[in-house]
Design goal:
The protein is about 75% helix and about 0% strand. By secondary structure, it is mostly helical. The radius of gyration is 17 Å and the shape is globular. The chain starts with about 20 loop residues before the first helix and ends with a helix.
Length: about 230
């Protein structure tokens, strides 16, 4: 793919619509992921801390990608002549990450686990590069600062309540991703909260509230995208 504009990684907050714009929100998540992956690869952490760090990475990767697929890529397909091709490629990257992480999660004792995690990191880094260099600059071209901030708010609402684990069978596009993925959010978040984060009833109520919030956030975000995109 040929970049249509300067990568968002090379621009400051003012050029990207301000700190609350979707472009800055994306870049902050990407930087956080990069730092966590580097820490996992470089530091000699005890097994428990290493596993906890891996879980943090997984949670951020999948909530971030779900919000992209729900809010951003439908917009990109509407405003960019090659949006269909670009988003299809990124969706394929997301699916490959999903499949690989699902294999890692289902095989905790496999001797290849560390190798698979490094492979997942390579896929995630490639996905970040494609988004920052190829896809996200097109949103900068298509929308003014105010619109980029509105998109950022919708994306953040979906990300905050999205599924946090791999679900390879969930479609990559709305409305299928919402119909299949949102009900899984409660299950994911219950797993994320357990064990040791409070009474079981409290964890269950938080998870249920998360599922309701996820459903509302996704519905509102999709409606906003269709109305204002």
């Amino acid at each position: 793919m040929t970049a249509p504009a300067v990568s968002i990684s090379e621009q400051d907050a003012d050029a990207l619509g301000g700190d609350d714009s979707i472009l800055m929100r994306q870049r902050r998540d990407h930087a956080r992921l990069d730092a966590m992956m580097n820490r996992w690869l470089s530091e000699d952490l005890p097994p428990g801390e290493l596993d906890a760090l891996w879980l943090d990475i997984v949670q951020l990767v999948f909530s971030h990608a779900f919000a992209e697929e729900t809010v951003l890529w439908p917009l990109l397909r509407r405003v960019s002549p090659d949006g269909e091709e670009l988003t299809r490629q990124v969706e394929e990257e997301h699916q490959a990450i999903n499949d690989l992480v699902a294999r890692i999660e289902s095989s905790p004792d496999d001797p290849r686990r560390a190798e698979w995690i490094r492979e997942a990191f390579a896929l995630i880094r490639q996905d970040i590069r494609d988004e920052e260099d190829e896809l996200l600059p097109r949103l900068r071209t298509a929308y003014d600062d105010r619109k980029l901030r509105r998109i950022g708010a919708a994306w953040e609402a979906v990300r905050a309540t999205a599924p946090t684990r791999p679900h390879p069978g969930v479609p990559r596009r709305p409305p299928g991703n919402a119909l299949r993925g949102v009900p899984l959010s409660a299950f994911d978040r219950l797993r994320d909260l357990a064990p040791g984060s409070g009474p079981t009833a409290r964890r269950a109520s938080l998870a249920a509230a998360g599922a309701v919030g996820a459903g509302c956030a996704v519905v509102l975000a999709v409606r906003a995208v269709r109305r204002h995109g």
